Structure formats: structure tokens, C-alpha cells
Amino acid sequence: MRLRNITGSREVIADSEFVVKEAVLFECPGTWHDIFGNENPIHIEIGMGKGKFIHTMAKEYPDINYVGIEKYSSVLLRAIQKMEEEPLPNLKFIRMDAEDIAKVFGNEEVDKIYLNFSDPWPKDRHAKRRLPSKEFLARYDVILKRNSRLEFKTDNRDLFDFAVEELEPAGWKAEVITYDLHSDEALMQGNVMTEYEEKFSSMGNPICKYIIYR
Ligand code: SAM
What we know:
Layout: H1 9-15, H2 22-27, H3 32-36, E1 42-46, H4 52-60, E2 65-70, H5 73-85, E3 91-95, H6 101-104, E4 110-116, H7 134-143, E5 144-154, H8 157-170, E6 173-178, H9 185-188, H10 195-202, E7 208-213
Parallel strand pairs: 1-2, 1-4, 2-3, 4-5
Antiparallel strand pairs: 5-7, 6-7
């Protein structure tokens, strides 16, 4: 998702109380419990877009701390606007490229990772940029607690097949794999739809999902 450059979005982000600055985090990774002021588990969404999913989750589960990560200022701005309308103490944002994710979270600091409708980067030479690639799985391996889970949803079958193939070489195992999430009553329990999920499922696209661990 890339919105038009919105004038002033960088300034809004720099001033926003909801955004934790990347530079501050680089100085002292592993301090998220201090940032939230409690010891609750930390769940993150990488590539959150406008933040519909993570905002809904944070509202539903006040005893979990959520961190939404988004690369583009113009997109993050929408998530900030939503927080200004309905502030939540257990949700923070970072504007950054997730390539540096292991610099802003400590070893095994994160209790769950969500990837939702990640950009497909269809050209082979860009495979390393795909958020479920083995290169990214290696970064998640550092920050995610042992026995914790990573959940990935997409309607893009090529990206999903790629993601499944990456698991074994990267040392991850699938607990759940479905190629039609919305037809699976058990998996749909508590499913929070992302913005892209609403859009693509309403067009009739089946939604793939895996839950993985190592
Ligand atoms: N997760 C949302 C949803 O399901 O509705 C948004 C999906 S959108 C297709 C993917 C989002 O991931 C975009 O907003 C994009 O800017 C962001 N993104 C892609 N690569 C990223 C990266 N390396 N680091 C942080 N954000 C990234």
C-alpha cells in the first residue's frame, strides 16, 4: 500500500505521542515493557498499513501490548488519525523498514508476530524483500520468544506458496495451514479482518493463512 505523499505527514509522525521513534529504539532495544509501563505480552504487526487490524485487536485485548510497524509515513498517518479519534494505551507505532526489526526489539521480547497481506514483490530478484522470506524469518527468530507463534494471512497464492516453501530451510514448522480461511469455522473464531482481507474476500478471493513456530 502506498498512498500519495501527504504534506506534513513526517511532522505529524515526529510529534505524535503514539509513535515510538526508531532512533530512540536503536539506542535501547528491549525496553518495550518500560515504554508500555507494564509486563503484558507484546504482539506486533509488521506492515500494518492503515492499522485497522491492530487497532481492533488492541481494543479487544487490553491486556496485550501491540506495536504496529509501517514503512510509509503517508500510510502510518492514517493509523495515527484513528488513534487520535480513539486512543488506546496498549498500542504504539513505529515508522520503519522491518529489515531493521531486530534492532528495535530485544532477543525474544515479542510474544506474537502478525503478517497480514504482505507486499508480494513478484520478481524473483526481490524475494528477499518479502516479509515471509527466510531472510525475514531469521530476523523474527531473534525477537520472537521460543514456542511463540507467527501468523500470516494473504489472498496471494504465489506469495503463500513461497512462504510455505521457506519454512523448512529456515527451521520453522507449520502448526496450521489453510488455503481457505473463511470456510474454516474453527479458525474463523476470533478472526479480525484486516483492511485488505475485507477488500479481497468481498471479491471472492480465498484467504490463505498459516500459523508457524520453531
Ligand atoms: N496489513 C494491512 C492489511 O492487511 O490491510 C496492509 C497490507 S499492505 C498490502 C502491506 C503494507 O506493508 C503496506 O502498507 C507497506 O507499506 C507495508 N510494508 C511493506 N514492506 C514493509 C517493510 N519492509 N517494513 C514495514 N512495512 C512494510
